Amino acid sequence: MVRGMILSFILASLTTPASAQTTDAGADASLSPSLAAVAKSMHATIRRNIAEAAETMPAEDYPFKPTPQVRSFGEVLGHIANANFFFCSQANGMSSPSTTNLEKLTEKAAIVKAVLDSLAYCDTVYETTTDSNFNQPATVAGLGNRPTPTIRGAVLMFNTAHNNEHYGNIVVYMRLKGHVPPSTARTQQPKK
Q1: Other C-beta atoms within 10 Å of 114: how many?
Q2: CA dihedral 150, 82, 97, 36 (to 10 degrees)
Q3: Could you give the C-alpha distances from 57 to 2, 74, 104, 150, in angstroms and in order?
Q4: Buried b (16+ CB within 10 A) or exposed e, 133-159
Q5: Cα–Cα distance between 107 and 96 in angstroms, integer?
Q6: Helix, strand, coil content of the chain in percent (nearest 5)
Q7: Bigger pLDDT: 13 or 118?
Q8: pLDDT in tens, 92-131
Q9: Phi-psi map region of 43: left, alpha, beta (phi>0 left; psi -120 to 50 alpha)
Q10: Which of 173, 165, 191, 186 lies closest to 24, judged by CA?
C-alpha cells in the first residue's frame, strides 16, 4: 500500500508541467525503476536548490517576512534544517543528532551552517538507502507526531516533498526581495 502511494506521488509529480521556476533537473535524469535511486536523485536536486538559496540570499534579507503571520526567510531555513534532521534520523531508526530548535537562529552564518549540516546528515541516510532496505519498517514519532509505523523510503520521500514545499516559499521570498532563485538562475545560463 505504501509503495503504491509513493508511486502515485511520483506519477502525480510527472503530470505537473516543468518550468524554470522549479528546478533544472528533468524527469529523464531522476526516474528509474529503483525507488531508492529516485529518492536519492530527488534529494540531490532539492538539496542543491536549498543550499544555494541559503548561501546566496543576503544576510540583510534573512529576517524578511512577506506578511507578519509567516516565518521569515531565516526561520523557513531553520524549519527545513529541523525537519531534515528529524525525518532522516527517523528513516534511519535513530534519534535526531540536533537538540537545538534551529528555527530560532538569527544569524545567516549559523543558519547556513545548520542547513548544510542537516543536508549532509540526510546525504548519508539517502546514500545508504537501497532497494533492499527501502521498505524497511520505520516509525515516525516526535515533533507533535503520534508514533506512526511506515517504511524508511516513505519517510525519505516525505522529507523530499517537505523540502520542495518550502523551496516554493523560498522562491517567493527571493523574488519579492528582487533576487533570482538558484534553480531559475541555472536555467537562464547559456547552454554550452
Answers
A1: 24
A2: 40
A3: 37, 10, 18, 36
A4: ebbeebebeeeeeeeeeebbbbbbbbb
A5: 22
A6: 60, 5, 35
A7: 118
A8: 999 999 999 999 999 999 999 999 999 999 999 999 999 9
A9: alpha
A10: 186
**C-alpha cell, 35:** 525507488
The letter for the amino acid at 48 is R
Which residues lie closer than 8 Å to 8 by C-beta, 6 or more apart? none
pTM, two decimals, is: 0.85
> What is the rounded CA–CA span in Å between residue 168 and residue 175?
11
- In this structure, the chain runs to a length of 192
Judge whether 152 and 91 are in contact, CB under 8 Å. Answer: yes
The pLDDT tens digits for 56-89 are 999 999 999 999 999 999 999 999 999 999 999 9
Residue 14: count other Cβ atoms within 10 Å of its Cβ. 10
Q: Which residues contact 50 (CB under 8 A, 6 or more apart)?
A: 77, 80, 115, 119, 163, 166, 167, 170
Cell readout for 101 is: 530548535
Alpha carbons within 13 angstroms on the beta-carbon side of residue 80 total: 34
3-state secondary structure of 156: helix
What is the rounded CA–CA span in Å between residue 178 and residue 30? 30
What Å distances lie between residue 183 and 6, 32, 75, 81, 176, CA to CA? 25, 22, 21, 19, 16
